Amino acid sequence: MPKPKRNKMEIYNDILCAISQELENGEAKPTRVQSLSNLAYDKLVRYLDELEGRNMIRQGPLGITEKGRDFLQDYDRISEFLLAMGVKYLDVSEREIQ
C-alpha cells in the first residue's frame, strides 16, 4: 500500500523536527535535514525558504526561531488531541496519523 501524501503542515513539521534533532547533535546541515525529512533537495530548499519567510527558521546557520518551536509544540498537541478523540472520526487508521 503506498504511503499517503503528506500535506504542507506535515512537511513543515518533518523539517522542523529534523532541524531540531540535528541541533541537539551540534549543527543542522541541509543535506542531513533533507535525509531526515525525506524530501528531494530542490523541494527542501523551497520549503526552507517558505519557513524562513514565515519566520519559523533562520538560514545560515540553520536554526529554529521561537515561532518555529511554537509550531512544533502546537502540532504535537493537535496530533495528540486527534488521537485522543479517536481516529474513527477522521476515517484513517492510527498508523496513518503517526
Structure description:
By secondary structure, this protein is mainly α. It has one domain (8-97): Arc Repressor Mutant, subunit A (Orthogonal Bundle), CATH 1.10.10. It has helices at residues 8-24, 30-37, 41-53, 66-85, 94-97, and strands spanning 57-58, 63-64. It has a two-stranded antiparallel sheet. Strand 1 and strand 2 form a beta hairpin. The relative contact order is 0.13. The mean pLDDT is 87.
Coarse structural class: mainly alpha
Radius of gyration: 14 Å
- Number of continuous helical runs: 5
Q: Give the biggest sheet.
A: 2 strands, antiparallel
Features:
98 residues; mainly alpha; Arc Repressor Mutant, subunit A
Quick recap:
The chain is mainly alpha-helical. Helices cover 63% and strands 4% of the residues.
Protein topology:
Layout: H1 8-24, H2 30-37, H3 41-53, E1 57-58, E2 63-64, H4 66-85, H5 94-97
Antiparallel strand pairs: 1-2
Helix pairs in contact: 1-2, 1-4
